[in-house]
């Protein structure tokens, strides 16, 4: 009888001690679990980001500096720059001028428009705008080409809000951060201003492209403060689609 009583007492003591130790054991279990590792931003890959269905960032860039350097490898290539200022200069300016004249005919561009060409390299688009009468025109690129092109990163344009009436670009595919590319256009474009993009939908762009666009819909989603005006097929030196937006007027 005494043995049974002793065993019962020991069992009760064990159960009480177990109950009292449960919170400690639970905490010990939680803190002993392996914690997820978060690499520092500088080493985080930025190459697998997909911004929307139909728009994919290309792999290969480990940092923004690496992306910029890759773009500069093309922009600073002396052979390419010679081609851009000689053979391509005479070949492309008349084509750009025709595109811009058609936009003037549709009253989307005017002689009095203050115009910006984004990713203009040596300024062929700027020269074309000036030839059709839009004299207040300038371009931006990572490497300046005075007097037609000033230095600027299209992810962070060096201009004030509501500066331009018209912005044109055929380098959307070079944007590593498409949402920033578009946000900067909408920031620097005046209310009711026009943005025209030439993009490739039916074929993949060159090796310096940072994204691939598969439909117009991602652009519509990115231009949050603008209205889609028109989409048409063009033959723009490897780019097949012209997309036109008008920035909304704030209510």
Topology:
Layout: H1 2-32, E1 55-57, H2 64-75, H3 78-85, H4 87-105, E2 115-118, H5 124-131, E3 137-141, E4 149-151, E5 164-169, H6 178-188, E6 189-199, E7 211-213, H7 217-222, E8 226-236, E9 239-247
Parallel strand pairs: 2-3, 2-5, 3-4, 5-6
Antiparallel strand pairs: 1-7, 6-9, 8-9
List keywords for this structure.
251 residues; alpha/beta; Rossmann fold; 7-stranded mixed sheet; two-stranded antiparallel ribbon; 22% strand; Methyltransf_11; SAM-dependent_MTases_sf; S-adenosylmethionine-dependent methyltransferase activity
The outline comes out as: globular
H-E order: HEHHHEHEEEHEEHEE
Can you count the helices?
Answer: 7
Strand content: 15-25%
- Give a quick account of the main beta sheet: strands, pairing sense, barrel closure: 7 strands, mixed
First-last Cα distance: 90 Å
CATH superfamily of the domain at 100-247: Vaccinia Virus protein VP39
Count of strand segments: 9
GO molecular function, one term: S-adenosylmethionine-dependent methyltransferase activity
InterPro entries: Methyltransf_11, SAM-dependent_MTases_sf
Domain Methyltransferase type: 116-197
Structure characterization notes:
It is a single chain. This protein is an alpha/beta fold and 251 residues long. It has a domain at 100-247: Vaccinia Virus protein VP39 (Rossmann fold). Helices cover 38% and strands 22% of the residues. It contains seven helices and nine strands. The chain has helices spanning 2-32, 64-75, 78-85, 87-105, 124-131, 178-188, 217-222, and strands spanning 55-57, 115-118, 137-141, 149-151, 164-169, 189-199, 211-213, 226-236, 239-247. It has a seven-stranded mixed beta sheet with strand order 4-3-2-5-6-9-8. It has a two-stranded antiparallel ribbon with strand order 1-7. Helix 6 links the parallel strand 5 and strand 6 (189-199). Helix 4 (87-105) packs across helix 5. It starts with a helix and ends with a strand. Mean pLDDT is 84; it is low at 18-45.
């Amino acid at each position: 009888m005494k043995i049974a009583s002793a065993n019962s007492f020991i069992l009760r003591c064990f159960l009480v001690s177990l109950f009292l130790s449960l919170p400690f054991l639970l905490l010990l279990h939680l803190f002993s679990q392996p914690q997820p590792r978060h690499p520092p931003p500088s080493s985080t890959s930025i190459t697998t980001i997909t911004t929307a269905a139909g728009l994919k960032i290309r792999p290969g860039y480990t940092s923004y500096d690496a992306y910029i350097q890759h773009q500069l490898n093309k922009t600073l290539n002396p052979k390419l720059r010679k081609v851009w200022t000689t053979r391509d200069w005479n070949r492309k300016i008349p084509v750009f001028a025709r595109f811009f004249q058609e936009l003037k005919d549709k009253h989307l561009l005017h002689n009095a428009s203050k115009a910006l060409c984004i990713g203009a390299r040596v300024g062929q688009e700027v020269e074309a705008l000036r030839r059709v009468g839009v004299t207040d025109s300038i371009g931006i690129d990572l490497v300046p080409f005075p007097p037609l092109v000033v230095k600027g990163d299209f992810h962070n344009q060096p201009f004030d809000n509501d500066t331009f009436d018209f912005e044109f670009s055929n380098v959307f595919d070079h944007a590593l951060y498409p949402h920033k590319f578009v946000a900067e256009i909408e920031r620097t474009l005046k209310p009711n201003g026009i943005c025209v993009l030439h993009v490739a939908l039916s074929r993949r762009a060159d090796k310096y492209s940072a994204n691939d666009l598969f439909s117009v819909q991602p652009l519509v989603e990115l231009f949050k403060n603008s209205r889609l005006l028109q989409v048409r097929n063009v033959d723009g030196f490897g780019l097949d689609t012209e997309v036109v937006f008008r920035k909304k007027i704030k209510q």
